[in-house]
Design a protein that fits this description.
Order of helices and strands: EEEEHHHEEHEEHE
Radius of gyration: 19 Å
Number of helices: 5
Number of strands: 9
CATH architecture of the largest domain: Orthogonal Bundle
CATH superfamily of the largest domain: Winged helix-like DNA-binding domain superfamily/Winged helix DNA-binding domain
CATH topology of the largest domain: Arc Repressor Mutant, subunit A
Strand order of the largest sheet: 7-8-6-9
Strand content: 25-35%
Oligomer: single chain
Distance between the termini: 8 Å
Shape: elongated
Helix content: 25-40%
Structural class: alpha+beta
Length: 181
Amino acid sequence: MSWIARFSKGSVQNAAVNATIRRHTFVVSTNTFADMTVPQLDDADRQLLSLLRENARASTAELARKLHLSRTTVQSRLQRLERLRFIAGYTVVVPDEAEAALVRAHVLITLGPKQAAAIEAALRRIPEVRVLHSVSGPFDLIAVVAARSIGELDALIDRIGALEGVERTTSAIVLSTRIQR
């Protein structure tokens, strides 16, 4: 998984970072800081995010000991990272075992010109779409979906393909997840 920020010719794009926090997930913002002052992460911020990725249930006191900082300093850093939207939100993480009966797939989507915003809005309204990535290459989007059966997955993929502005879909069923961090 990439680090928080990737610098390229003056622009910064944040990479997604997930870690479990008390059965919740913190998500690092995927916004581009194009026209504003880019908040800088120092080594302590990067180490803090790395420790949270390893064990996000760690207490503030434990994080402080590992970082050789005071507990209040670590708490302030966490609040600052939230305020700056490096930690963009919290969500529940459902264990794979709880969703073992679901059929998961990656749906690679090719869009017509200038259709990304409308398709994203439409996909947000489909609860079976768990994750949506904007990507480079021959496809424009990759949707990670989950359905209760192959039949429902087939109908879901047809539903996505029928959206106004979708030119083509290609899907790959997930057989197993080998690494998830």
